[in-house]
Design a protein that fits this description.
This protein is an alpha+beta fold. Helices cover about 25% and strands about 30% of the residues.
Length: about 170
């Protein structure tokens, strides 16, 4: 490690003892240093990530690097694409790429878009409605609920009743 350069986990590290983001041995990932030189300022690792466009961690040419927010970086590694500022996402159902908007995907309460496009989600919901095999009463609260083929042994109306029943058995 005295050479001022080494590789770990596919990344190239270089000696930069005075850098604010250097590790305790005085090294920093080379691609971060290259991006900082390109941008002209230090990158805050909590607010930005440097992404290798071709996913080769040793290819630290400026044209192969992108500065992204952590959210954007996660999207890229989840199969999303950005073209001229517009994000695109492939549906896990039909495998068609759609613009990543609430027009094409359902948005969860957390702000995350669904895995399947609206059409595939609606088809899956309709198929599940046809999948009801039984109507039962919850063993804890006596509320009636539908049981689907995939959940044939279900005894409770939901997670809350199930966990409360289990807790009561431990007492």
């Amino acid at each position: 490690m005295n050479t001022g350069r080494y590789e770990s986990d596919g990344y190239v590290f270089v000696m930069a003892k005075d850098h604010p983001n250097a590790n305790r041995d005085g090294f920093i990932r080379e691609h971060v240093l290259v991006m900082e030189r390109t941008l002209g300022h230090v990158i805050n690792s909590k607010t930005h990530a440097v992404h290798h466009i071709n996913e080769d961690r040793r290819d630290n040419r400026p044209e192969n690097l992108q500065c992204l927010t952590p959210r954007e970086h996660k999207r890229v590694h989840s199969g999303w694409r950005i073209v001229d500022g517009t994000w695109y996402k492939t549906c896990r159902g039909c495998r068609v790429e759609h613009e990543a908007t609430s027009e094409h995907f359902y948005e969860r309460k957390t702000g995350i878009l669904s895995y399947k496009c609206r059409k595939c989600t609606q088809e899956a919901v309709a198929a599940r409605k046809d999948d009801v095999i039984d109507v039962r009463n919850c063993e804890r609260c006596s509320k009636s609920f539908e049981v689907r083929a995939a959940y044939g042994k279900q005894r409770f109306c939901g997670y809350s009743c199930s966990s409360k029943y289990i807790q009561s058995q431990w007492r």
